[in-house]
Design a protein that fits this description.
With 595 residues, the chain is an alpha+beta fold. The strands form six sheets. An eight-stranded mixed sheet has the order 6-9-10-24-23-22-19-12, sandwiched between helices. A five-stranded mixed barrel has the order 1-2-3-5-4. Strands 13-14-17-15-16 form a five-stranded antiparallel sheet.
């Protein structure tokens, strides 16, 4: 018989009755029924009930046992009485009558409950993450993550991709976020950087003659935490295809996403091909380039109706080049006044000066701005929004960018507060046709997103078009309002790359110095190539129906980018700093704290 177990705690069934077996696991619960002890013994696979009679020699040691102690039991499998069968357990038809017991690992008093879900501070959970991971919900999330990644690898291989590894220690590169720098001991004063993404390496693999690459790639970015973004590091399904168009990338990812989300969730999944929404249309209708299509609300432009109206606050905005956006909501007029006051306060919290609204009740237009509008203007608004009795239209007046941003936030908030989101469904879309360039805060032409994207129309577009009219072969895939990834058809022509950077105000020397490998490689026969990199953490977060990404990562950092379990970041010895030729120049407050 095996030293620790013949079966797992999720394995025994009625067909095992009469067998002598050995189980090991953690004490999940202990119950005393008239002197007979019942222990739910838990391991990775499940729970089995152990029965201990008072006549056993080890019974007297019960006062030393605590939940989460690791025990090993040997005994006989018996069938439970019909009245004692537990249908909630896969092993609920049997129990183990213990004959011997061995303590494998004692537990101290635990800082929070593991065998049931209860509120607990995140700091405590992260400090004792090894205990937190024993909780069923979190344990299941990590198992789900492993299975999803395994299936991803299988699906990618089936579609002709091969997995290659790219370096972790590389050079610093201006890719949008801050790098994590690693000092070099043998090259004093020089630093490696942890990769923000394998972007350049995967493109170089295509130039090297490899056709379809993928990798479950770790990426490192020194940026702040969000609910859907872990600080420090994250994992993405990195992929690149040679001799590929935008449609080729879409086909690969639609098959992948459709399969993964159908196999690992009971929710309905959009059929393929996924809907494609041009960037400018997304901003106009949803006020976001990652719209949640479960929300039926859309924005419309009411600027022309307000241009000459008697409501000077809105007419003045339009006269100065701004816009008025409206969102029509069915059946909203019956909400209490507090609902509308709260929505006004919300709009102000996201940058609006106010939030206008008109409700139609018993054929009459009511609301703070209704009295400023003529009957004809009210009729035009009603027609624009398709509004009827009992409906409400909300209005945002601002610059185009401001109205889109505020309107997008108001749309989302209305959807949540009114419970309008479609239930039990994953709604996917592609956002396409991103602008190649935009004006920065100083009014200068700058890259709007990815400088390595191929402009639609190639070199000819760069030479003949207004930069602000040039679109890029760039795309995002979005699910339920969460951006899973950005991708692009790459600019593989060195001449086109130089021209694109020139338009954005960078000379040829910038390309040569900042991206020397790519620029050099592209001069030696680069194939057309395209790629994308869906976030694994975000995919699992959606599948697990978790609101916070830390619930699907085994050992995450907190919002301050601290690892409370391992104590990172931490101080190092002076000897280590000297080996790296580094002298600290701490802020004054930290110097005082250190003293």
């Amino acid at each position: 018989m095996h030293k620790f177990r013949t079966h797992t705690c999720g394995e025994l069934r009625k067909e095992n009755v009469g067998q002598t077996v050995r189980l090991s696991g953690w004490v999940n619960t202990i119950r005393d029924h008239g002197g007979v002890l019942f222990i739910d013994l838990r391991d990775h696979y499940g729970i089995t009930q152990i029965v201990i009679s008072p006549d056993k020699a080890f019974y007297k040691n019960i006062e030393h046992w605590r939940v989460e102690t690791v025990l090993c039991f040997t005994g006989d499998v018996v069938a439970r009485d019909a009245s004692a069968v537990n249908p909630k357990l896969i092993t609920g038809g049997i129990e183990l009558v213990a004959e011997t017991m061995e303590v494998l690992g004692e537990s101290e008093v635990i800082p929070f409950q593991v065998n049931k879900e209860e509120e607990c501070s995140e700091a405590l959970r992260l400090k004792y993450r090894f205990l937190d991971l024993r909780r069923k919900s979190l344990h299941d999330n990590i198992v789900l993550r492993s299975k999803v990644i395994s299936r991803i690898r299988q699906l990618m291989t089936e579609q002709g991709f091969l997995e290659y590894q790219t370096p972790i220690l590389t050079s610093s590169s201006p890719e949008g976020a801050r790098d994590y720098l690693v000092p070099s001991r043998i090259h004093p004063g020089k630093f490696y950087a942890l990769p923000q993404a394998p972007q350049q390496f995967k493109q170089l693999l295509m130039v090297s003659g490899f056709d379809r690459y993928f990798q479950i790639a770790p990426c490192f970015r020194d940026e702040d935490a969000r609910a859907d973004r872990s600080p420090g590091e994250f994992y993405q399904l990195d992929m690149e295809l040679s001799f590929a168009t935008q449609d080729d990338v879409f086909a690969v990812n639609e098959k992948l996403m459709s399969t993964i989300f159908k196999e690992f969730s009971t929710k309905k999944v959009d059929g393929t091909p996924f809907i494609r929404i041009p960037y400018r249309e997304a901003m106009e209708k949803y006020g976001s380039d990652k719209p949640d299509l479960r929300n039926p609300l859309i924005m419309q432009d009411a600027s022309d109706i307000f241009r000459t109206c008697g409501f000077k606050a809105f007419a003045g905005v339009v006269e100065k080049g701004g816009v008025v956006k409206t969102i029509a909501v069915k059946g909203c007029a019956g909400q209490p006044r507090k609902f509308f006051d709260d929505m006004v306060a919300f709009a102000q919290s996201v940058g609006a000066k106010g939030l206008g609204y008109i409700s139609w009740v018993d054929g009459e237009a009511k609301g703070p701005i209704a009295k400023f509008l003529s009957a004809d203007e009210l009729m035009k608004l009603k027609s624009l929004g398709g509004a009827g009795d009992g409906d409400t239209m909300f209005f945002i007046a601002d610059t185009l960018k401001g109205a889109q941003s505020i309107g997008g936030a108001v749309r989302t908030e209305l959807g949540l507060r009114l419970d309008l989101l479609e239930k039990d469904v994953f709604r996917f879309c592609w956002i396409v046709d991103f602008p190649m360039f935009e004006l920065d805060d100083e009014g200068k032409v700058a890259f709007s997103h990815n400088p390595f994207s191929m402009p639609q129309g190639g070199m000819d577009a760069l030479l003949t078009k207004d930069p602000l009219d040039i679109l890029a072969y760039q795309y995002d895939i979005v699910c339920n309002g969460t951006e899973l990834s950005s991708g692009a058809v790459r600019n593989h022509s060195p001449e086109t790359m130089i021209k694109a950077f020139e338009i954005a105000g960078y000379g040829k020397e910038v390309v040569e110095s900042k991206f020397p490998a790519l620029y050099r490689a592209f001069k030696y026969g680069a194939p057309p190539h395209a790629g994308i990199a869906p976030g694994v953490d975000r995919m699992v977060m959606l599948l697990a129906d978790e609101p916070n990404i830390r619930e699907v990562i085994a050992f995450p950092m907190n919002q301050k980018a601290e690892d409370l379990l391992m104590g990172a970041p931490g101080e190092v010895e002076l000897k280590q700093l000297r080996e790296l030729h580094i002298k600290l120049n701490l802020p004054k407050k930290q110097e005082k704290d250190a003293e």
